[in-house]
Design goal:
Layout (H helix, E strand, L loop, with lengths): L4 H4 L2 H20 L4 H7 L4 H8 L7 H10 L3 H5 L4 H10 L15
Helix pairs in contact: 3-4
């Protein structure tokens, strides 16, 4: 039996998806746009718009970003920042991650 992405998400992810879906729905309604109109603009199906608005986690990130773009909300994603990550990167001075384990190449 195949595992669905919705079976693997944590409660926190479910809450975040529901919140994002609610924001998308409110933005769409505030702009007097139907789900079908948003679907055409975001190059997806009305059923996908409906699932995203209901907090579904199965849709791809690109689809959600296209919806946000069509609603004029994409710039909010660009403004996201994590000061903790920035502080850790500055402290460690790393530009990329490296494995700490030594590869065993002895055949």
């Amino acid at each position: 039996m195949r595992t669905s992405p919705s079976d693997l998400v944590s409660p926190a992810v479910r809450r975040a998806a529901a919140h994002l879906g609610k924001l998308i729905r409110q933005a769409r309604l505030a702009r007097s746009m139907t789900q079908s109109e948003l679907a055409v603009r975001a190059k997806t199906s009305p059923s996908t718009v409906m699932r995203v608005e209901k907090g579904g986690v199965e849709s791809g990130l690109g689809t959600v970003l296209l919806m946000l773009e069509q609603l004029g909300l994409l710039h909010h994603i660009s403004e996201l920042a994590d000061p903790t990550t920035q502080a850790l990167l500055e402290h460690k001075g790393r530009k990329r991650a490296r494995s700490s384990a030594v590869a065993d190449l002895d055949f």
